[in-house]
What does this fold into?
Amino acid sequence: MSLVLGKHPVRLLGLVAAALAWPAVAQDVDAMLRDADRYRTGADNLQVDTLVQSYKTDGTLDKERRYTVFAQQDRRTLVLMQSAAEKGQKVLMLGDDFWLLMPSSQRPMRITPMQKLLGDASTGDIATMRWSGDYSATLVGEEPCQPGETRLCYRLALQAVRKGVTYQRVELWLARQRHEPVRAQLYVQSDKLAKTAHFELDASRSQVDAMVLIDQLGQQRQTRIRYLQRKERTVPEEWLNPMFLARSPVLE
It folds into this structure.
């Protein structure tokens, strides 16, 4: 028996090849998500010097704050606030639990990952730099990386699998070849679109240099989270204990 390809054999063969390849791509979605995470982290135990800048609706700079973020394995993160207005304050994330520690108090205060730090940057936006393990991912299809672009990205639908995540679900666009994150839509528990995120890579295109958040619930204000420096660092275990942090206003 022979197969008649008709007037456009090359196009038909291309469609058949794409259809055969698609299941393999869909099955590898978890690996794609881990690839995307590496652009934001790069190591299990990391120190990230971070600058957060909030902008007014006319695009001029409003405020900025500096943070030192110690992202450690097993979903543990310590954030030290470095700007004069917040000096001495700390945020500790242990899995699904978040605490705010004030230098004037010896009682850690429970907070949520949605707690605002500056502009539209929340605690979770600063403390969490991974999607893998926090979300289940489904490959939706291929779509323009940006509206109006001809370049195509993989679109992933992420659904939270843990209660302590910042967003209940995420729509994420990844570049097709190396799976670097391009943009995302961030939804809160009410399933409202809270923010969009755009990811800027460094000159070598090996890691995310900045994440730009745009408010979708208010006035479209922009907040830029810049990762000034990353280096591998494992902090002392006691730094990840909220009671120790409450008794120790100075760590370095």
Notes: Helices lie at 9-27, 29-40, 123-127, 242-247. The chain has four helices and 15 strands.
